[in-house]
Design a protein that fits this description.
Layout (H helix, E strand, L loop, with lengths): L2 H9 L1 H5 L25 H7 L2 H16 L2 H15 L3 H12 L3 H6 L4 H14 L4 H13 L2 H13 L5 H10 L5 H10 L1
Helix pairs in contact: 1-5, 8-10, 10-12
């Protein structure tokens, strides 16, 4: 999948969230001007013509896309369609707003619409994961309901920096059946 397609899909995430409470209307960065959309048959040639940094970025983008649950990818596809229908000036304004955000915030949107909207609040607990916790943490986070994510965001915001590793490890160790009770207990403290 070429970068312009991925970018278009990811740019529309915030638009898909506009119908839900607590949305952030910020698109992802546009594809570089030097990278025009190319037909699939020409994509490998276009990829080879990119510099090493652009190729790495494309690989990261694609890996993030593949890691998303299908339901999240579908939301992004729908949002991309709505974004493409916007006037060019509005698209550019949304791109500019997104580019003005901190890189950590922008990277949070790679986790998909549901986690992306909560990522700024979850960043304290999940922004810097040890490599051995990354996959399990993402799997657990993708399983959470919006209400559970909101509770976890509250826990993350209330957790002092020196306790974050312990709280994150404790959360990840909680069986799925007990997560809701754990979150309610921790958020209530």
């Amino acid at each position: 999948m070429n970068k312009s397609v991925i970018t278009s899909l990811l740019l529309a995430i915030p638009l898909s969230l506009s119908a839900t409470p607590q949305t952030l209307n910020v698109p992802l960065p546009p594809a570089p001007a030097a990278t025009p959309a190319v037909p699939p048959s020409a994509a490998p040639t276009a990829f080879v013509q990119l510099d090493a940094q652009q190729q790495r970025q494309r690989r990261v983008d694609y890996a993030a896309w593949r890691a998303l649950p299908e339901s999240e990818r579908e939301r992004i596809r729908q949002a991309a369609t709505r974004f493409a229908a916007l006037p060019a000036a509005q698209q550019e304004r949304l791109r500019s707003q997104f580019q003005a955000q901190d890189q950590a915030f922008r990277d949070g949107w790679r986790l998909g619409p549901q986690l992306g909207v909560e990522f700024p609040k979850l960043h304290g607990l999940f922004g810097f994961l040890p490599p051995q916790q990354r996959d399990s943490a993402l799997a657990v986070l993708h399983q959470l309901s919006p209400a559970q994510l909101a509770q976890l965001a509250l826990v993350a915001q209330r957790t002092p920096p020196q306790e974050r590793d312990a709280v994150r490890s404790a959360f990840l160790a909680v069986p799925a059946a007990e997560r809701d009770a754990w979150l309610k207990r921790q958020a209530g403290q």
